[in-house]
Specification:
single chain, 523 residues, alpha/beta, six-stranded mixed β-sheet, 19 helices, 48% helix, binds guanosine-5'-triphosphate, binds potassium ion, binds magnesium ion, TrmE/GcvT-like, tRNA processing, G_TrmE, P-loop_NTPase
């Protein structure tokens, strides 16, 4: 019985259905030291000071020796100056710094080399061709270096995603967020949660074994009516094996640990939308009546002539989208048609599209002409868009709105705020730029609320993360409702499986393909 229990505890700790919880499992790629050796230019394309060419795979050392003189391998991880020449013709290619990273202490876990050559296109193509002539070497596919790093357990799936985001990060907030993910924060969090579930599962499985022997399950479930009930019950049973379990993981702790886990998952799930906004940009929609200066504002914020500006009302018809860095946050800025009634069919279609885009906005930048507030179009816009959105007191995570009164340069001099009766607003002149700093400050606050603080805030940046955390939470719900120990254990296993898949344990090829598609060749 004692030995049986230990077997069960360790089996639960390992998990009978998923091989290892949240391990950094690989894909179909072969283990370190086998397979082809790949090479690619890892720095950007085009003329530059230094270009970095990498290789990874078992023939890396041979490739390094074939191209360099002297032919011996440099000391591991130390930059050495070498003359590079083409192994076929002996023709000199460049004088370059080379590095030798013997596996497994390398980015991919395999033998790797780096050639830091002068960045002219002729040098780069000469070295790439020379490498291509070495037997066993072939050009790398997009993301193949990172994929090998993942296959060899150097990076978890969430870290791979962080790396992809870091390469694509365009704003400061995105960079901070990607770095946190690359540091493995999300993976660590999931591994901690999975460990909690493993302990709970060990407890339940051991009890299943115990009750099979002693026929106790029925009575306990009758009394408790739920896993929480029988967990408490177990600690009351004076059996040596149960006492052992109680010491290693007291049932009341199991109860509260799983409950704590539910709370933590809920907090992160509520933050998920913010994390996704931080990764792909908040939707900021500029809207208002015709000629308010919406297109002028879009051009000012994006610092380029995205939209046509003209004195003619109804200039903008289609929704025009442009990605911008707004005060360090990524945003997708949309210019829209001026909202008004009684217009021709083309402009009407523009108005319909504008209204549709307004519904999808995370943040509405409502623009009015400060000198034209009494016009029917302005009044209608205030009544139908600004006031319902509750400008001035944005609440919670719902759609937010900033009201901007443009063309302040046309207001009589000395008039600080001509419209104190309007909902909270900012004065701006797209013509002179006055009020722009205040607007950017307000935008920063709004975007920080929408996207979260990148250094402490949301960690879930993809819908994939949200899907698995929700799956885990749902399974914990089933666990609580299970009236049968076997079902309760199965629910815990399902919950743990979701966490495991989030970090890449048992990741399917499809997910890997989608993630690695984001990478460029050489990464
Ligand atoms: N004086 C002044 N004129 C401005 C300002 N901003 C925009 N304008 C002018 O107002 C007119 C309309 O500007 P747009 O940016 O085309 O306005 P819009 O809201 O995009 O117009 P529609 O697309 O037609 O709905 C243009 O002649 C601009 O030069 C401003 O701050 N001050
Ligand atoms: K216009
Ligand atoms: Mg316009």
């Amino acid at each position: 019985m004692w030995r049986g229990l230990w077997t069960l505890v360790s089996r639960a700790a390992r998990g009978p259905h998923s091989p290892r919880p949240c391990t950094r499992q690989g894909s179909r790629y072969p283990g370190p030291g086998s397979g082809a050796t790949i090479f690619a230019l890892s720095s950007g394309q085009g003329r530059c000071g230094i270009a970095v060419i990498r290789t990874s795979g078992p023939a890396s050392g041979h490739a390094l020796r074939s191209l360099t003189a002297p032919r011996d391998l440099p000391p591991a991880r130390k930059a050495c100056l070498r003359l590079l020449s083409d192994p076929r013709s002996g023709e000199p290619l460049d004088r370059a710094l080379v590095l030798w990273f013997p596996g497994p202490q390398s980015f991919t876990g395999e033998d790797c080399t780096e050639f830091h050559v002068h960045g002219g296109p002729a040098v780069v193509s000469g070295v790439l061709q020379a490498l291509g002539s070495v037997p066993g070497l072939r050009p790398a596919e997009a993301g193949e270096f990172t994929r090998r790093a993942f296959a060899h357990g150097k990076l978890s799936l969430t870290e791979v995603e962080g790396l992809a985001d870091l390469i694509h990060a365009e704003t400061e907030a995105q960079r901070r967020q990607a770095l946190r993910q690359l540091d493995g924060e999300l993976g660590d969090l999931c591994r901690g949660w999975a460990e909690t579930l493993t302990k709970a599962l060990a407890h339940v499985e051991a009890y299943i074994d115990f009750s099979e022997d002693d026929n106790l399950e029925e009575g306990v479930l009758d009394q408790g009516g739920s896993p929480w009930g029988w967990e408490v019950e177990i600690s009351g049973i004076q059996r040596p094996q149960v006492l052992l379990l109680s010491l290693s993981f007291p049932p009341s702790t199991a109860d509260s640990e799983v409950r704590k886990l539910e709370v933590a998952l809920g907090v992160h799930l509520r933050d998920a939308r913010r994390g996704q906004r931080l990764r792909s940009g908040a939707h900021v929609v500029v809207a208002g009546p015709p000629n308010a200066g919406k297109s002028s504002l879009v051009n000012l914020l994006s610092r380029k002539p995205v939209s046509i500006v003209s004195p003619e009302p109804g200039t903008t018809r289609d929704v025009l989208e442009t990605p911008v860095d707004l005060a360090g946050f990524p945003a997708l800025l949309s210019d829209t048609a001026g909202l008004r009634e009684g217009v021709g069919p083309v402009e009407q279609e523009g108005v319909r599209r504008a209204q549709k885009r307004l519904e999808q906005a995370d943040l509405i930048l409502a623009v009015l002409d400060a000198t034209d507030l009494a016009s029917p179009a302005s009044c209608n816009f205030l009544d139908t868009v600004v006031i319902p959105a509750g400008a001035g007191n944005p609440s919670g995570n719902s759609q937010r709105l900033l009201l901007v009164l443009n063309k302040s340069d046309l207001l009589p001099a000395g008039c600080s705020d001509p419209h104190p009766d309007l909902p909270s607003h900012l004065l701006l002149s797209c013509l002179t730029g006055e009020g722009l700093d205040g607007l950017l400050e307000a935008l920063k606050k709004e975007l920080a609320a929408l996207c979260g603080d990148p250094s402490t805030g949301p960690l879930l940046t993809r819908s994939r993360h949200q899907h698995h955390l929700q799956g885990c939470l749902d399974a914990l719900g089933q666990y609580k409702q299970a009236r049968d120990l076997a079902l309760a254990a199965e629910a815990l296993r399902v919950a743990r499986g979701h966490l495991s898949r989030l970090t890449g344990g048992g990741g399917t090829e499809e997910i890997l393909d989608i993630i690695f598609r984001d990478f460029c060749v050489g990464k």
